[in-house]
């Protein structure tokens, strides 16, 4: 028997971690040496980010340490900065900016996606994304700290600015984050000298509807529910600028907001531009249904970064949408095909029809559309929790999340802001400087 195949996986997200776990189960150490590369040492289960931000789930419980779930794999906390398919090598940036290169026999390119931003004046300075656990924790602390500051000032204009929260993007991520945080804030007001009518929650969406993932009837229901809860919704318009936290919308609405959250879509990881892999016009890796990268033998891709043909669509040239649902299912097919490649077996094509979507809109509120069946209110909220608890990796994490939910039934949510954790050395530096 020859040397084990060198399988390198770029990305420790859902695709990378699931593929590595599947391969470790199917391949012995003599057959393959697995290396997973990601700047973070953990996988984030993004469907629970909104609940982590709202305090329904402990943030540490929505991440899965890669070294814990990938025994027998080499995990490198590094950033992949390039791929050369001719020399079959990956360029890495590790500690202190040190650059290294490692070779591969089989390569999986699954770096995921990042927030898709626009050159809007003030957005880079004042906007907050909602793609990572760090952003979710920061947003929670930021929102709660606005209540602390608003309750402590006598300046009416400042108070109005502090209590205005703007969300840009009406997809699932934006709606869930906004609804969960509003629900958390409303419950927190019991401890503040702030009336609920002073809170201003504004949603801006460029399309003429929200939540394109579900039917128009469920989207209309969700819009009505948000409006009833006091949300101010601007459809068919965009954010023009937010310099100095002064917001100007495309419909000429103007106001000050001290919280500006950007959830207006995602784009493939920019590292793909520094590779010789074929990319489609949107920057995703061009793949076959077998998840093999076009024109690159031994290279596979899946997830948000991959343009995988959607064979269930009637639209010519359609590719699978960048969603957790596709990523989780593609990872299983990807692992099977890598094993088949090593053992000389036939490869399987990826085919998956859209099962549906579930979304939480705060405690006991939600919408769901599963295989054409539409649910709303408490049943949809319960289904959202049950589905994502089932798909959360490891029994360890499932148990901790379930325990978080059970504890929250008799007790209130924790609504304390711990913003100092974002600048932990500030007090020490001040003390050191006298």
UniProtKB/TrEMBL annotation:
Signal peptide: none annotated. SUPFAM superfamilies: FAD/NAD(P)-binding domain. Keywords: FAD, Flavoprotein, NAD, Oxidoreductase. InterPro entries: FAD/NAD-bd_sf (IPR036188), FAD/NAD-binding_dom (IPR023753), NDH-2 (IPR045024). Residues 6-329 form the FAD/NAD(P)-binding domain. Pfam families: Pyr_redox_2. Belongs to the NADH dehydrogenase family. PANTHER family: NADH DEHYDROGENASE (PTHR43706), NADH DEHYDROGENASE-LIKE PROTEIN RV1812C (PTHR43706:SF45). This is NADH dehydrogenase.
